[in-house]
């Protein structure tokens, strides 16, 4: 095997199956009275420094890029030394925030790391301090102090690795490996302290900073890697400093680093969350959308996000000046990532009208192998939508994504979102404000007897939806600075545009853009249910509204013939049927108008946007809701994101695409992914590849926003359930990430098996 084959073998046969050690739990820096007297943001940076000085470091066989983040997980928690005083913790809890309420999601300005180095950013800090207003601003001085401490922490971590590499070189028997280790030691002594000068230095510089981000609770994406790394590769190749094969080795080693924390065996997973860690991170606990976190420890959803760190990479697209951004590194990254059969980073690719055919072919070829990625983005639809909410053209063209799929501007965005669970809201209207699953009153609604027509019913639904959105907006405004006061991010702020210029932490108005998205959740089931209510209750009078409410409350007990009528008598979203698609179109227009009205009330500097999302939690969101009018049983999973309900898109992928692109999606540029599952047998050979690229192009031409395609058949998944160790690399898409199928709960696996397998 060559180097990258050996690294891949190590990942699947050793690293993924070895229980990970969690480091940093129950540590504190509050052991000195002088430390306790310092401002909280400085104490936070001292905790970052403590991690850099004390976290375990390790060299892996064959690797050319070094650095391993401490173990953490979106699903199971994160460990970090305590730095907040009891009274500060108590104050944060008033707003449901803790020391661990780091939101992540925000890609840094990685080009700044490469072109300025830590030394250049320090000079930027010192220069900014000299501004007269900053010299008089104690809070700004504290911020700058915390940034300097954080930058120095990155340098210390790099030097620790430089020393480790030299020590390993001194004991290495292989002269070839000894030289590699010495070169790597020299590189770690240079970067990220100084600007990168080679492709190897650029990869190591970005990764070293990334290691400390992810070891200090910052679950961050990697953004447009082919854009900021390509100049270094191009120069190396032109000057003949490296060959293409050497570049591929460096790149493969770099990409493998993202996956080393993956834990494939669920028996080795463990929760590292306290009761306080499961607080709502700024959400209103009285909100109808607030439930018990994301339930990663529940059997039905166990470990869905276990191997997720919000690490999304996006390639291709347009440059800020409007040219095609595709370059040789775009293809090289995709090829090496595909070979590794990785689920980290989450891979995405941007397309536009001038995207080369070669990129379509490569992505389609990867997708038909069953990876579930790359996620496909449509620049021609997304960029105008970003401009609509106030993003300037050049920045809109430079968009990236967060750790799932939401669009934002890399290095410039403080991003947040809430979910408006509209199927739950529909249940409230039908059940007098009660939750069927939780058996308690949670909302105030009008009496059903007052809703004499479908128009009255629908308008009541819109009224309640706007009330919910206003509540979320008010909560956002009330808590907008609360997170900063207990969980600031001086390290990330050092690499975010304008923070140093303004003397502000990125979430405390430091970032260029403050974007907050209001996400519709449970869209397809809600639309299908509205269609049933319109058709069966008001038009055909098959049953009354109160009778329907009772049937749903009893979960269709003794009413299977009626349930079948609700399932089959009314068209379902995703089949190119005007009856239900018109309702979807109306709902999206009306919801966009609601958010537009909220945008007019937003404080200066805040951008409100809308999207459609379940992320990977469609099983969790479904588990919170009782039976629905579309014929869905209580607590069954919902359709993912902007996709049809599970098993309801029966007329092929083209029909599904026509349904989801029928509405005006311009207001939804933050994100509304369609998740399709196709039969891989239908896309074999050259003709199969042409059919799949044709499907992708049709989606783009019809102004779809985001598309995921998983080419895995039922037979393969059923075999994987029976003999999991034979299918370790089988990957599936889960709405906001991809996962190894064998690591998922039985309920989530079964929901994937039940999805419609489209024939092209």
Automatic annotation (TrEMBL):
Protein name: Formate acetyltransferase
Pfam family, one: Gly_radical
Domain Glycine radical: 640-760
Superkingdom to which the source organism belongs: Bacteria
Protein keywords: Lyase, Organic radical
Positions where Glycine radical occurs in the chain: 736
InterPro entries found in the cross-reference section: Gly_radical, GRE, PFL_dom
Presence of keyword Electron transport: no
Keyword Glycosyltransferase: no
Domain named PFL: residues: 2-633
């Amino acid at each position: 095997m060559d180097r990258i084959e050996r690294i891949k073998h190590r990942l699947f046969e050793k690293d993924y199956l070895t229980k990970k050690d969690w480091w940093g739990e129950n540590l504190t820096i509050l052991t000195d009275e002088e430390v306790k007297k310092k401002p909280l943001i400085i104490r936070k940076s001292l905790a970052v420094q403590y991690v850099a000085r004390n976290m375990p470091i390790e060299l892996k066989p064959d690797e050319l890029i070094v650095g391993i983040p401490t173990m953490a997980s979106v699903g199971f928690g994160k460990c970090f030394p305590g730095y907040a005083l009891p009274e500060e913790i108590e104050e944060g809890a008033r707003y449901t925030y803790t020391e661990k309420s780091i939101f992540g999601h925000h890609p840094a300005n990685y080009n700044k790391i490469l072109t300025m180095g830590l030394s250049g950013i320090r000079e930027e800090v010192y220069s900014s301090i000299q501004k007269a207003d900053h010299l008089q601003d104690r809070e700004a001085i504290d911020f700058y102090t915390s940034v300097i401490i954080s930058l120095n922490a990155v340098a210390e971590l790099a030097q620790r690795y430089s020393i480790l590499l030299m020590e390993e070189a001194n004991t290495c028997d292989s002269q070839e490996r000894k030289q590699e280790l010495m070169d790597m030691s020299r590189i770690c002594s240079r970067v990220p302290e100084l600007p990168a000068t080679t492709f190897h230095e650029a990869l190591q510089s970005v990764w070293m900073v990334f290691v400390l981000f992810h070891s200090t609770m910052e679950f961050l994406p990697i953004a447009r890697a082919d854009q900021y790394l390509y100049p270094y590769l191009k120069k190396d190749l032109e000057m003949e400093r490296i060959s293409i094969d050497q570049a591929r080795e460096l790149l493969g080693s770099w990409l493998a680093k993202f996956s080393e924390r993956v834990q494939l065996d669920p028996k080795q997973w463990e929760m590292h969350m306290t009761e306080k860690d499961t607080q709502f991170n700024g959400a209103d606990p009285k909100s109808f959308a607030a439930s018990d976190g994301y339930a990663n420890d529940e059997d039905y959803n166990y470990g869905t996000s276990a191997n997720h760190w919000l690490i999304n990479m996006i390639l291709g697209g347009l440059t800020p000046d409007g040219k095609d951004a595709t370059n040789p590194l775009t293809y090289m990254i995709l090829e090496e990532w595909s070979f590794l059969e990785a689920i980290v980073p989450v891979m995405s690719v941007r397309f536009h009208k001038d995207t080369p055919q070669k990129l379509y072919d490569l992505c389609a070829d990867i997708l038909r192998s069953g990876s579930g990625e790359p996620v496909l983005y449509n620049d021609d639809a997304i960029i105008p939508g970003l401009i609509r909410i106030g993003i300037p053209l050049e920045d809109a063209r430079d968009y990236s994504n967060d750790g799932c799929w939401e669009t934002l501007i890399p290095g410039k965005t403080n991003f947040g979102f809430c979910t408006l669970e509209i199927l739950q809201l529909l249940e409230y209207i039908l059940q007098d404000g009660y939750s069927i699953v939780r058996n308690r009153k949670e909302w105030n609604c009008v009496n059903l007897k007052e809703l004499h027509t479908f128009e009255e019913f629908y308008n009541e639904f819109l009224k309640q939806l706007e009330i919910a959105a206003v509540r979320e907006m008010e909560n956002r405004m009330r808590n907008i600075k609360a997170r900063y006061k207990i969980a600031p991010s001086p390290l990330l702020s050092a690499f975010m545009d304008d923070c140093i210029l303004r003397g502000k932490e990125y979430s405390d108005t430091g970032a260029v853009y403050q974007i907050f998205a209001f996400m519709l959740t449970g869209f397809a089931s809600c639309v299908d249910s509205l269609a049933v209510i319109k058709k069966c209750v008001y038009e055909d009078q098959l049953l009354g509204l109160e009778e329907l409410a009772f049937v749903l409350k009893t979960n269709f007990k003794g009413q299977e013939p009626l349930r079948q009528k609700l399932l089959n008598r009314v068209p379902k979203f995703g089949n190119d049927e005007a009856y239900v698609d018109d309702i979807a179109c109306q709902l999206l227009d009306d919801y966009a108008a609601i958010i537009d009205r909220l945008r007019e009330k937003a404080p200066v500097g805040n951008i409100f946007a809308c999207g459609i999302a379940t992320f990977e939690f469609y099983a969790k969101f479904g588990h919170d809701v009782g039976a629905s009018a579309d014929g869905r049983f209580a607590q069954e999973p919902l359709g993912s994101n902007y996709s049809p309900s599970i098993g309801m898109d029966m007329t092929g992928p083209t029909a599904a695409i026509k349904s989801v692109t029928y509405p005006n999606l311009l207001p939804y540029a933050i994100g509304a992914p369609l998740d399709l599952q196709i039969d891989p047998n239908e896309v074999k050979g050259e003709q199969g590849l042409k059919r799949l690229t044709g499907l992708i192009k049709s989606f783009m031409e019809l102004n779809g926003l985001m598309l995921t395609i998983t080419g895995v058949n039922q037979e393969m998944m059923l075999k994987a359930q029976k003999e999991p160790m034979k299918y370790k690399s089988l990957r599936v898409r889960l709405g906001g990430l991809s996962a190894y199928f064998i690591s998922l709960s039985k309920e989530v696996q079964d929901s994937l098996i039940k999805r419609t397998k489209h024939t092209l």
